[in-house]
Amino acid sequence: MNIAIFLASFGISLLELSEAGAVASIYHGIYKNNTPFLYAVLGVLVVLVPTFTLGQFIYLLPLKYVLIASSIILFYFGYRLLRSARRYFKRTKKVSKDDEKKEGVVVVFTISAVEALEAALVILALIDQDYMSSLLGAISASVIVMILTYLLKSQIARIRLPHMKFVLSALLFSLGTLWFNEVFIGLSDLFLPIFFLGFLAFNFLIVKV
């Protein structure tokens, strides 16, 4: 086994999938059952299963079209999260538990798929070097994330849902902008924190207006 490839796959998977676990834990506090975790797992599998089964062929797809389509999806869900957060902060509309639950499974699935895609973009490059080490790294990270999510779900669930939506919206807008940038401009990924801070400011203005 290639230790370097294993650690790289393990590290990126642990980082990205932890965010999916955190979002699922917050919605677990609303559902009071394991539905959010099931949708989180589904979102991750939808991305990682094709990554490891068709990894060699995914390179044949025009990456720019994948990034453009993914960016549009991110902008759409970023808008939905911001709209929902704004309703709460402005108290313009009472959000029912049923509406929150319907929205929740979509949010959990989308965030999980997005985080898995972020990991997959790195893993695809690692697969070419050592498939088995990449696979073991991703599986090991997934197991650890599931254990930590189970142990810490009560603490994570205390995070206020509207505030999480506010921040996640900025994150989705930032990633969408970054991926559009990779296709049309080519700025460094180091601009992601700048995009994120910019969209946090933008979201703050939208919520306050």
Automatic annotation (TrEMBL):
TM segment ranges: 6-30, 37-59, 65-82, 103-127, 133-152, 164-184, 190-207
Coiled-coil ranges (or none): none
Recorded superkingdom: Archaea
Pfam family, one: OFeT_1
InterPro entries on file: OFeT_1
Record's keyword terms, sorted: Membrane, Transmembrane, Transmembrane helix
Protein name: Membrane protein
